[in-house]
Amino acid sequence: MKVSLIIPTYNAEKYIEKLLDILLAQTVKAEIIVMDSESLDNTVDIVKKYKEQVKLIQIPKEKFNHGASRDYALKQSQGEVVIFMTQDALPTNEHAIENLLKGFEKKDVAGVYGRQIAYEDASAYEKLTRNFNYSSKEKIWREEDIETLGVKSYFFSNVFAAYLRSAYEQVGGFDHGIMTNEDMLIAAKFIHSGFALAYAPDAKVYHSHRFTLKEDFRRNYKIGFIMEQYKDRLKGADSNSEGFRMVRFVSGKLIKKMKFISLFLFCVHVFTRLMGNKAGKRAYRKKVK
To answer: Which of 24, 58, 61, 218 suits 34 as a labelling partner, its CA being 20 to 30 A distant?
Structure first.
């Protein structure tokens, strides 16, 4: 099975060399493609050092789009399976791709995503949030599980995810012209087209964020906008109950560890995300009136 791996980059010099080194050391070899959108730092120069092993695609920054640009890069690839990663994710060992591909051993699986583990310098609440969202338990699900899983039916992450090319093409690929959540939207396409999705907890990458409140608001504004725009496709995706479960889990752990400053910061960020999400949904409803 031929495998391709695509990494969209923008100002990735902090991460890209270490990421490429560990990808080239994987037990499963892949065609590696870096798609850069006019980085202002040394990203392109670093990637060019790997010119015999890594294909570089350069696109104008203003042309980058989360769905269309990934679709463009996929069409430049050769793999029967195409993996997407983000520039700030880092496989924990040389078996990450191998373990991710095992998800396709299950019947009708169109996509598999891996486990995210917070970096050591992440905040206490960020580590707990990753633990909540990315458990150690393997999972496979289909359309009939929507009633039970709710919004988790469409939970999928291009931080480290693999797609079967034939299934990707069958459902029409990523949506174009979208601000975010291209992975969630194609997950819904797969589910509603009769495919299964899988989560591979042994396919592990380090990945976490240190968002400011402004960044958190903007990010969740976009998520809310997209979820309202595509609510018919994302049927059964009530995120409130899952959000409350996450808040209870993280808050409970922080209280038990007596990390009260972290608890306060977590609550502030949760409120900011909620307000951003609601504002995004209102903005879409106002736009279509």
So the answer is: 218
